[in-house]
């Protein structure tokens, strides 16, 4: 219609409806996304309260129960619901404790990477010039490396361990949010309210942190939640290859690897941890899709 | 107005177009009557929310869900447009009635060249084209070059192969007019053709429309918010507010002696050189929301001449020869 | 002259230029290709007196917005000098410039893009107070913002709302409040009403004139709408392709334009007061690309009066009396492209 504006007041709108709240409400209205978010939340709860939830000690071996089938199959027991692995450890308990690893690593990597990515992206996008050139080249180089092989190489150099895994994954992960932030910053810095802040005498730091950042957080959050799923799979892959957390700590990827030798006679050793990975990653993906839809400004036009 | 004779090209009676939104039913056009005679230029003036664009979008049959035409009769050249099948309507749209939009960049297909878009229209509506493939293609190309030349695009032959974004705003508007006129329509509806343009380009575009109108005997509806444009180019003017027509009549009469308080307010609030040093008197307040409007004069809350007797539904009143206004304080006067 | 502005200019612009250089790739540099340069503003000089409204008109691409921003150093000028109240603004270091920004402000055209969507009105309007330490306590800041918000016609209840909850006209008022809260002396108004409905335009124009009177402001009013400029301004400058081609008291320039470009502009403006066709000066050709401006007088490619000297030599600005001046080689021949038609 006309380019000139409609001057109809919207007094009916809630007095303090910030954009964030409106987006949250929109997300809550998406039942599939909300359900998935609840699933993720349940996984998180399970991880936090693992000692209370798990029926057995995940490291307790019992050679009498070696490769015991799940409860509903002949030879199974209800107290060992999903069966036992090659060392007689309860698979269910190991899955519950394994959630800690996956979720902790996933969250830690994404949080550290996003922080680094935001700082680098803001600097590159707002300050341009040589800062941008240097950061962009570094990003391009890192993007050229295949993720898993790079991580394997780093782990081989640094040795196993929780911190090392996080570092090996953050090493490259930060470029993803950095690119998003840089792109959004480049676009936002041309907007008039940024120019207005400059005209009022705001410093570069103020503009980056208080004008630009709040307006670009939405896509960054969405990307970060999606990346969490990737990171969890990467961690599982590393563990599968034996480069992740070491035994006896339970990690889903390692559990899948352990069960490979017995896949024909004791399929449950690999399958249930695999399903756990699948469920968590799927839930995260669906929830983050919902987040993306809810936080996309065009969706609300 | 209900002058129904051979002279009338477009006759709209009691048009009501609504939009079903979650917040309620928005009545964008409420009981609008329009009459456009052959060869005349009607100016339609209104601000946002006046319903001016939706009115003619309804005439063109372009209103989609959640909008719908709730009531009214639309007669074009004697035919009831609402009774037509979509196919019949498509045959008329673009050929007998053509419409140009305000934003040429989004109205033109960015993925097709200008030549391709002109060819589309000619292919669909021009019956004089030869039938053989090569002859037809050449005829279309010749007609396209002719049309671009007519609207003042320099070196039309080469520019046929260019894309809309390669043209300036003024030229894109002219291309839209070329596309609209390619099939020699009887009625051209120009929706805000000059709003985004510089004043000299604006003058060029309007002159172009006038020249072509004179040449083809075409009727034009010029939708705009600029009273100056209307003053210079239109024979009659229709002022709309909040989905209704509030005043209409010959342009010179309406502008020199407005009858409806809204028209008076608009004219009194336009800043211009001749008013230097005087206060302009802006109309206070804002256009009301078009949902659940009370049954009274819609301009009541902003009107300087309001009274208790305005709190009821008001029809168009006779305000002089060929003039009407939707205000109970109007008295018809003899023509000057 | 209207009103009583002081005689020494509050703002003085001398030889201001702003050019943009295109990036050349290494290959182009090696091949010796010249850099593309767009001269957005070219050697502009004028002065604005305290209490005056200086209008700046021109069509798209003439550089008026760039000029307004260059004066405030939002785009750094590539040449020339801007003097405000005796201080050379163009030579100021960052700290000095920040202090100057309290006194020189800007109102933007787009009411939708000029407000941070994630901040409340109180935060947006209060930003200058925070940046310049103008309020000692949060309570004081709130009082000041409440006062200024009411001054522009909004309510204190609006302070805690977000921009998207307001209409265009209201948002523009918020932008005006933000520009005024530090009590500046000079404001660049960059097309402040162009994006608004006609009746709202009138409201905002009335608001701007009232505020100017109450707060003793000086405006540089940029617009493509000649009628608005004609109503508001005391003096006006006409820009074409980065240069000022004519300037002077507004009545003189708009009623008796001496430069052919101004004459063609004035003939194209549709006037409500005079229904019916008027004679229009038709310019030949299209606007030249700013990448390759014409030599000599930049207007010569479209000017019906162009002669040889116009094609080779750039004209100087010459006075025609009463503070009115124009840059045209044929100025003194007193030609007019406008023909008066019987009313």
Features:
heterotrimer; A: 301 residues; mainly alpha; MetI-like fold; elongated; disordered N terminus; C: alpha/beta; four-stranded antiparallel sheet; 12 strands; 31% helix; 22% strand
Distance between the termini of chain C: 29 Å
Could you list the spans of chain B in which at least 5 consecutive residues all have pLDDT below 50? none
Number of strands of chain B: 12
SSE pattern of chain B, N- to C-terminal: EEEHEEHEHHHHHEHEHEEHHEE
Share of helix among residues of chain B? Answer: 25-40%
The DSSP helix count of chain B reads: 11
- Summed over residues and divided by their number, the pLDDT of chain B gives a mean of 85
Shape of chain B: globular
User: Rg of chain B from C-alpha positions?
Assistant: 21 Å
The helix-and-strand class of chain B reads alpha/beta
Distance between the termini of chain B: 22 Å
Describe the overall structure:
- The complex is a heterotrimer of chains A (301), B (336) and C (343).
- Chain A is mainly α and 301 residues long.
- Chain A has one domain: Orthogonal Bundle (MetI-like fold).
- Chain A has helices at residues 19-29, 31-48, 50-53, 91-127, 129-144, 147-158, 162-173, 175-188, 192-199, 204-240, 252-259, 268-295.
- The radius of gyration of chain A is 24 Å and the shape is elongated.
- The two termini of chain A are 14 Å apart.
- The model of chain A is unreliable at 1-15 (pLDDT under 50).
- By secondary structure, chain B is an alpha/beta fold.
- Helix content of chain B is 32%, strand content 23%.
- Chain B has helices at residues 52-59, 86-92, 104-107, 114-125, 133-150, 156-159, 169-181, 199-216, 227-233, 251-256, 261-269, and strands at 8-21, 24-37, 41-45, 67-76, 79-80, 97-100, 187-191, 219-224, 236-241, 244-250, 317-318, 324-325.
- Chain B is globular, with a radius of gyration of 21 Å.
- The model of chain B has no long low-confidence stretch (mean pLDDT 85).
- Chain C is α/β, with parallel strands linked by helices and 343 residues long.
- Chain C contains eleven helices and twelve strands.
- Chain C has helices spanning 26-31, 64-71, 94-101, 121-132, 138-151, 168-180, 198-215, 226-232, 250-255, 260-268, 308-312, and strands at residues 9-21, 37-49, 53-57, 79-84, 87-88, 104-107, 186-190, 218-223, 235-240, 243-249, 317-321, 324-327.
- In chain C, a hairpin with a 2-residue loop joins strand 9 and strand 10 (243-249).
- The longest helix of chain C has 18 residues, at 198-215.
- The B-C interface holds B 47-48, 154, 168-169, 198-204, 206-207, 225-229, 231-233, 251-252, 255-256, 265-267, 269-277, 279-284, 286 and C 2, 59-60, 167, 169, 197-203, 205-206, 224, 226-228, 230-232, 250-251, 254-255, 264-265, 267-278, 280, 282-283, 286-287.
């Amino acid at each position: 219609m006309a380019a000139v504006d409609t001057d109809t007041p919207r007094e009916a709108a809630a007095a303090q409806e910030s954009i964030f709240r409106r987006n949250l409400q929109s997300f809550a209205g998406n039942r599939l996304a909300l359900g998935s978010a609840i699933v993720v939340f349940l996984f998180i709860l399970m991880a936090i309260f693992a000692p209370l939830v798990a029926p057995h000690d995940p490291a307790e071996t019992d050679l009498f129960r070696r490769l015991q089938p799940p409860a509903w199959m002949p030879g199974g027991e209800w107290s060992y619901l999903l069966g036992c692995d090659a060392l007689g450890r309860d698979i269910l308990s190991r899955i519950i404790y394994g959630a800690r690893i996956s979720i902790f690593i996933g969250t830690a990597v994404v949080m550290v990477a996003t922080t680094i990515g935001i700082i680098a992206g803001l600097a590159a996008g707002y300050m341009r010039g040589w800062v941008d050139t240097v950061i962009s080249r570094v990003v391009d180089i890192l993007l050229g490396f295949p993720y898993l092989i790079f991580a394997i190489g780093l782990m081989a150099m640094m040795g196993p361990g929780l911190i090392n895994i996080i570092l090996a994954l953050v090493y490259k992960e930060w470029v993803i949010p950095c690119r998003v932030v840089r792109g959004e910053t480049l676009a936002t810095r041309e907007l008039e309210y940024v120019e207005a802040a400059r005209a009022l005498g705001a410093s570069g730091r103020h503009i980056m942190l208080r004008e630009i950042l709040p307006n670009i957080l939405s896509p960054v959050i969405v990307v970060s939640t999606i990346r969490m799923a990737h990171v969890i799979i990467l961690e599982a892959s590393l563990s599968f290859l034996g480069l992740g957390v070491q035994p006896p700590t339970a990690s889903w990827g390692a559990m899948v690897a352990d069960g490979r030798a017995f896949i024909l006679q004791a399929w449950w050793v690999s399958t249930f941890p695999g399903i756990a990975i699948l469920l968590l990653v799927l839930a995260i993906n669906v929830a983050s899709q919902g987040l993306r839809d809810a936080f996309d400004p065009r969706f609300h036009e | 107005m209900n002058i129904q004779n051979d002279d009338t090209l477009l006759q709209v009676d009691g048009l009501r177009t609504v939009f079903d939104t979650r917040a309620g039913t928005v009545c964008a056009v409420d009981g609008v009557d329009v009459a456009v005679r052959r060869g005349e230029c009607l100016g339609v003036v209104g601000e946002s929310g006046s319903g001016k664009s939706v009115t003619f979008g309804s005439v063109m049959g372009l209103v989609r869900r959640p909008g719908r035409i709730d009531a009214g009769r639309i007669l074009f050249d004697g035919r009831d447009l609402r009774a037509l099948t979509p196919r019949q309507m498509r045959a008329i749209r673009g050929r007998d009635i053509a419409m140009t939009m305000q934003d040429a960049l989004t109205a033109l297909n960015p993925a097709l060249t200008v030549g391709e878009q002109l060819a589309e229209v000619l292919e669909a509506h021009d019956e004089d084209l030869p039938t053989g493939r090569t002859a037809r293609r050449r005829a279309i190309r010749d007609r396209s070059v002719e049309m671009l030349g007519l609207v003042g695009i320099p070196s039309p032959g080469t520019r046929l192969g260019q894309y809309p974004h390669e043209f300036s705003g003024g030229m894109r508007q002219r291309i839209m007019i070329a596309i609209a006129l390619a099939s020699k329509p009887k009625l051209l509806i120009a929706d805000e053709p000059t709003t985004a343009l510089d004043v000299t380009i604006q003058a060029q575009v309007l002159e172009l429309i006038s020249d072509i109108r004179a040449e083809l005997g075409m009727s034009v509806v010029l939708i705009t918010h600029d009273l100056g444009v209307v003053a210079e180019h239109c024979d009659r003017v229709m002022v709309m507010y909040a989905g209704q027509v509030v005043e209409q009549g010959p342009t010179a009469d309406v502008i020199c002696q407005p009858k409806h308080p809204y028209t008076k307010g608009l004219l009194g609030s336009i800043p211009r050189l001749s008013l230097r040093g005087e206060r302009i008197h802006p109309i206070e307040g804002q256009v009301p929301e078009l949902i659940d409007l009370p049954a009274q004069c819609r301009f009541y809350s902003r009107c300087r001449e309001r009274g208790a007797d305005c709190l009821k539904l008001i029809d168009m009143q006779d305000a002089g020869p060929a003039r009407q206004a939707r205000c109970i304080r109007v008295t018809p006067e003899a023509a000057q | 002259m209207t009103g009583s502005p002081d005689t020494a200019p509050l703002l003085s612009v001398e030889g201001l230029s702003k050019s943009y250089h295109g990036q050349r790739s290494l290959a182009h540099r090696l091949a010796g290709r010249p850099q593309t340069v767009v001269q957005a503003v070219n050697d502009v000089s004028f002065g604005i007196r305290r209490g005056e409204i200086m209008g700046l008109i021109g069509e798209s691409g003439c550089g008026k917005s760039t000029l307004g921003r260059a004066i405030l150093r939002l785009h750094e000028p590539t040449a020339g000098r801007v003097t405000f109240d005796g201080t050379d603004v163009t030579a100021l270091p960052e700290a000095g410039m920040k202090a100057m920004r309290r006194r020189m402000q800007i109102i933007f055209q787009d009411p939708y893009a000029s407000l941070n969507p994630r901040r409340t009105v109180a935060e947006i309007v209060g930003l200058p107070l925070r940046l310049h330490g103008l309020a000692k306590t949060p309570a004081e800041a709130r009082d000041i913002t409440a006062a200024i918000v009411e001054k522009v016609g909004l309510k204190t209840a609006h302070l805690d709302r977000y921009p998207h909850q307001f209409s265009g006209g209201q948002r523009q008022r918020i932008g005006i409040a933000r520009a005024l809260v530090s009590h500046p002396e000079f404001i660049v108004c960059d097309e402040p009403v162009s994006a608004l409905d006609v009746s709202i335009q009138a409201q905002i124009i009335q608001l701007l004139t009232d505020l100017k009177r109450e707060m003793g402001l000086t405006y540089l009013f940029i617009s493509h709408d000649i009628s608005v400029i004609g109503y508001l301004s005391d003096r006006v400058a006409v820009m074409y392709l980065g240069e000022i081609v004519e300037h002077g008291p507004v009545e003189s320039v708009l009623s008796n334009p001496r430069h052919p470009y101004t004459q063609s502009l004035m003939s194209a403006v549709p006037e409500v007061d005079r229904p019916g066709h008027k004679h229009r000066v038709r310019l030949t050709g299209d606007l030249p690309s700013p990448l390759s401006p014409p030599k000599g007088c930049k207007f010569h490619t479209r000017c019906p009066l162009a002669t040889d000297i116009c094609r080779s030599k750039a004209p100087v600005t010459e006075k025609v009396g009463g503070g009115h001046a124009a840059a045209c080689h044929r100025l003194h021949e007193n030609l007019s492209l406008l023909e008066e038609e019987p009313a």
